Amino acid sequence: MAIKIASIRHVRGFDIARPVSIGVVLGLMLPLVLLPMLSIFIYGTSKGLGVFWSSLVAPEAIFALKLSLFTSFWATAFNVIFGLLAAYVLSRYDFWGRNAVIVTISLPTAIPTAVAGFALLLLWGPYGVLGRLLNGVQLMFTAYAIILANIFVTFPLAFGVIKPVFDTMSRSLEEASATIGATRWQTFWYVTLPSLRGAIVGGALLTFARAVGEFGSTILVSGNLAGRTQTAPLYIFAKFNEGQIEAANAIAIVLALLSFVIFSVLFFARDWLEFEAQEK
Questions:
Q1: What are the helix (H) ranges across the chain?
Q2: Distance in angstroms between the alpha carbons of the first and the last residue of the chain
């Protein structure tokens, strides 16, 4: 018979620490997170929804949003595939220099994004080590340069989410699959990969959210050319400097809502995906 044990409290009666601690957390969040986010929406709609909508559907604004989504998608696709491969290799195999590889993959998180953009310019620019080998093809100041920058700054995110799942995953199902004649690819596709769905979705959403908001590296490698290489964060920066606050604010609202949606999906869907994988 199961015995239910009552939770132990440090104090009897009313616990003052509970409302005080909750109040402190909310009180710190208010000026640091909640009010800044709220001010975007208040100011963005203060002159009416008509002004907001006209700022949002301006051709340059639409182009900047599309370019951000396009470059972020391809950077996310690359980093999820690489993160999955790297997590598999570094979790399943032990070799000399393994820890150095893990540290190197994680390094972009600690490097300032402006340094990342400058490094890419030195490497892929017209006079860079690899840029000279392109036979006059200009890679920098194009959408491809933005994708490269996004790949660099988001490089460890998907890997950092997927690898811990690999490390804690039981190999009994993989071993059972091998004993009944499944190939390594079949075992990975039908056994290992379904168990990683939650981690893959989480890593992809984190990578995409980070790439959409990237500024420091993209402003260097893109040239910030309106209608050509200007992403949404660069559009906000440019319009703010021009004094067009309404135009900047409209795109800021879209990016804020997009981030909210991404992290809501990340929070609510990942546990469900992992549960579904365990049920199978």
A1: 17-29, 35-44, 49-56, 59-92, 98-106, 113-124, 143-153, 155-168, 172-179, 184-187, 193-195, 197-212, 218-222, 232-241, 245-279
A2: 30
Residue ranges of domains in the chain: 38-279
Cα distance between residue 228 and residue 226, in whole Å: 5
3-state SS, residue 180: coil
Assigned architecture for domain 38-279: Orthogonal Bundle (1.10)
Q: What is the pLDDT of residues 59-90, one digit of tens each?
A: 999 999 999 999 999 999 999 999 999 998 99
Q: What angle do CA 146, 36, 70 make, to 5 degrees?
A: 20
Task: Compute CA distances 32 → 25, 38, 139, whole Å.
Answer: 11, 11, 39
d(CA 80, CA 200): 7
As a whole number of Å, the CA-based R_g of the chain is 24
**What confidence tens digit (pLDDT) does each residue in 203-232 have?**
999 999 999 999 999 999 998 888 899 999
Residue 5: phi and psi, rounded to 5, are -100, 125
CB atoms within 10 A of CB 37: 14
CA distance 233 to 231: 6
Give me the residue label for tokens 């957390």: 25
Evaluate whether 278 touches 168 at the Cβ level (below 8 Å). no
